[in-house]
Write a structure and sequence with these properties.
heterodimer; A: alpha/beta; four-stranded mixed beta sheet; two-stranded antiparallel sheet; 17 helices; 6 strands; elongated; B: alpha/beta; six-stranded mixed beta sheet; four-stranded antiparallel beta sheet; 13 strands; globular
């Protein structure tokens, strides 16, 4: 057993101490941060802070109070000024004092007809801020709290019939958590599986294999490799999660995110319970492919047979959201290769029967153990077949 | 008690019978040569001995029993296909492989430092393996084979990629290990190295053992009826009982007729007062025996 730990430690250090690992670790969160930053910058670039004007010739509004500030500093709502007639508004527009003006039509109360006049393409915020202004002032005869509620809109909470699950429509993190973590898992499992694949193929190619198998049993060797590379993947995931936590803590201070992010422990537990056996399963299969094939490129190609199905649930997101208990959703959450994405995703939208969770996780564990056994066997038979691919028939013959 | 007993092992890959009922024994403290042409089944036999492959039939006993994980620590193996991790520093690579043979990291470091000095590799210890020359990598691999002081050393083509100086160093090393009582199995094509180093040998052809025994026994078995004479004067061709006389190296090879012994020839030479510097029964070298046996067994198939 000591040699298992030696192989594990060597495999772990071999990858983690490389510069390219540190680069890979940092590149993903930096890329995500960059994309988010670019998105906000892009939104900010399109934001125009200049006021807007309006002409209310038919005295539709009885008050013209500004919408109270929400403390939003990144893109605060623009001020709305009333003009007595269209010529004075047009003059202000031409001078650049306002970015646009709105003309309320006579039929506004019946059909909401408004004309917007601008010199250039109107900014996104102009019409939405004016919409809020109208709602707020039309509700001025109601109490301040009611007016504020009308402006803020609803917070829809969706609850299952038995009351065991509920979800706030505003808590979008709950929806994207399984997708985001699934994607992270997919990347991490591909990276660590890729390491195993690469390690086995490399050891075959550089002939280290023959030395290794005369020092340590194939089972311990393969087990140590899988565990070491899984640990590499786990290190990556942990660092990414730390970055995510940091991001969640820091982002609301820097960016216009105005809601409390709630992540339930049960969701994290389900993610972990699904991801762990699934990672072992994929790593075992990657190891087997590495031992079976003749070079790294061929191994990568073959491994897509089981890495590609993992992302199939992403194509069916709408089906899972709209019908989480439908045949497609259930089948994908039970099928081992699609379960890591589909099961946690379904859990957001429905109460999954306990038997299905137990079945999926048990199946994943069984297949994980089987994949390790298979990897050990293929490894033993195929390790010294330089330049010659192993056939499936040979794998299941006596070694 | 033999260190290694190989009993009638057979192994088939698809339709190819790689090894066919191969048997031999290797005694403690001897250098045993495993010879044969390319594809004869030598490496497969070695891999079965080392438990890398399971035989279809037959058995192998290593140090009085089947191979075990503990026994793997008592074996040093230098495979024909040399291999070390290319992308890591030499010392790290050697230390890892030594710890897999049961050495503690501290002990492994200490011994490897000594070997690196002995093999003139101390300046290369911090270099990546891929930066080393083929000969240096070969020496590094020898360190991996010997660093844990194995009881059994199995080496496949130990002299390939080595210059004459390093070849001599490896020979000295093998003799030193034999003197320490280690059992050495050597696979090679270089017959003169076998003649120089091996106590006993087995020749495998087409998966079967076709020659087995001590070097001297085998040479005697294949000795032709000839004697080699070195003299300061020409050897007369009309000596009684001589079929033919050929110049051979710096001497004369005399081929004897039916029923004529080497004693008869020596007596005849002395009777004619021919000065004799050297008189010996001409033994065939291993190259000749190898070619003869391989051709014979090939023809039989």
């Amino acid at each position: 057993m000591k040699k298992f730990w030696l192989v594990l430690a060597n495999e772990y250090k071999r990858h983690v101490l490389r510069k390219r690992f540190i680069f890979a670790i940092l590149s993903f969160p930096l890329m995500v941060a960059f994309v988010i930053l670019i998105s906000f910058l892009s939104a900010r670039t399109n934001y125009d802070a200049r006021p807007v004007g309006f002409i209310d010739s038919y005295h539709i509004l009885t008050t013209t109070r500004q919408v109270p500030s929400t403390g939003e500093k990144f893109m605060p709502p623009v001020e709305v000024f009333q003009f007595p007639d269209e010529s004075s508004a047009a003059s202000a527009l031409n001078k650049g004092e306002i970015q646009a003006y709105f003309v309320l039509s006579e039929s506004y109360m019946s059909n909401g007809s408004v004309t917007q006049v601008t010199l250039d393409t109107p900014s996104n915020n102009a019409s939405s801020d004016f919409g809020h202004f109208m709602t707020y002032n039309l509700a001025s005869n109601l109490s301040g709290a009611v007016a504020n509620r009308l402006v803020d809109g609803k917070n829809l909470i969706i609850r299952s019939l038995d009351g065991t699950r509920e979800m706030s429509a505003n808590n979008w993190i709950s929806i994207i958590l399984p997708i985001l973590s699934g994607l992270l898992f997919f990347i991490a499992v591909n990276v660590s599986g890729g390491y195993i694949l690469q390690a086995v193929v490399e050891e075959k190619e550089n002939r280290t294999m023959e030395i290794l198998v005369t020092s340590v049993s194939p089972t311990q060797l393969m087990g140590g490799k899988v565990a070491g590379d899984l640990l590499v993947g786990l290190t990556e995931l942990t660092i990414w999660v730390l970055f995510a936590v940091l991001g969640v803590a820091v982002a609301p201070r820097l960016l216009p995110i105005n809601q409390t992010i709630v992540i339930k422990a049960s969701e994290i537990l389900l993610l972990a319970a699904t991801f762990l056996p699934a990672s072992i399963l994929i790593s075992g299969l990657m190891g087997a492919v590495g031992a079976m094939t003749t070079d790294a490129r061929e191994a990568q190609q073959i491994s897509t047979i089981f890495t590609l199905p993992m992302v199939i649930p992403l194509w069916f997101i709408s089906a899972i959201m709209l019908n989480p208990n439908g045949a497609v959703s259930v089948a994908m959450s039970l099928f081992p290769l699609t379960a890591p994405f589909a099961l946690p995703m379904r859990a957001v939208f429905t109460t999954i029967p306990v038997w299905q969770i137990i079945f999926t996780i048990s199946l994943l564990w069984m297949l994980a153990v089987l994949s390790l056994w298979l990897a050990g066997r293929v490894f033993r038979i195929g390790m010294l077949r330089y330049g010659k691919r192993l056939s499936l028939r040979e794998i299941f013959q006596r070694a | 008690m033999s260190s290694i007993e190989v009993r009638e092992i057979s192994k088939k890959f698809g339709s190819l019978q790689a090894v066919d009922k191969v048997s031999f024994e290797v005694e403690p403290g001897e250098i045993f040569g495993l010879l044969g042409p390319n594809g004869a089944g030598k490496t497969t036999s070695l891999r079965i001995m080392l438990d890398i492959f399971k035989p279809d039939s037959g058995s192998v006993s290593i140090l009085n029993g089947p191979m075990s994980e503990e026994k793997k620590n008592l074996i040093g193996y230098l495979p024909e296909e040399r291999g070390l991790y290319q992308d890591i520093q030499l010392d790290r690579c050697l230390i890892y492989l030594a710890t897999l043979k049961g050495l503690s990291e501290v002990e492994a470091k200490k011994r490897i430092e000594e070997y690196l000095v002995r093999f003139n590799l101390e300046d290369a210890s911090k270099k990546k393996v891929k930066e080393l020359s083929k000969g240096m990598q070969q020496k590094a691999q020898l360190i991996t084979t010997l660093v844990h002081e194995p009881k059994i050393v199995i080496i496949d083509e130990p002299f390939s990629a080595l210059d004459p100086i390093n070849t001599q160093m490896v020979k000295d090393l093998l003799l030193e290990w034999r003197a320490r009582g280690a059992t050495i199995v050597m696979c090679t094509h270089q017959m003169h190295q076998v003649e120089e180093l091996c106590d006993r040998l087995a020749l495998i052809n087409r998966g079967k053992v076709v020659l087995y025994g001590s070097l001297r026994e085998i040479q005697n078995r294949y000795a032709s009826q000839s004697v080699e004479v070195h003299s300061s004067v020409p050897i007369p061709a009309d000596l009684p009982g001589i079929k033919a006389a050929e110049q051979h190296n710096s001497g004369t090879l005399l081929k004897l007729g039916q029923g004529v012994t080497s004693q008869d020839v020596l007596r005849a030479l002395l009777e004619r007062n021919i000065p004799i510097d050297q008189f010996e029964i001409a033994l065939p070298n291993l190259d000749e025996i190898f070619i003869q046996v391989v051709q014979e067994t090939g023809a039989e198939e």
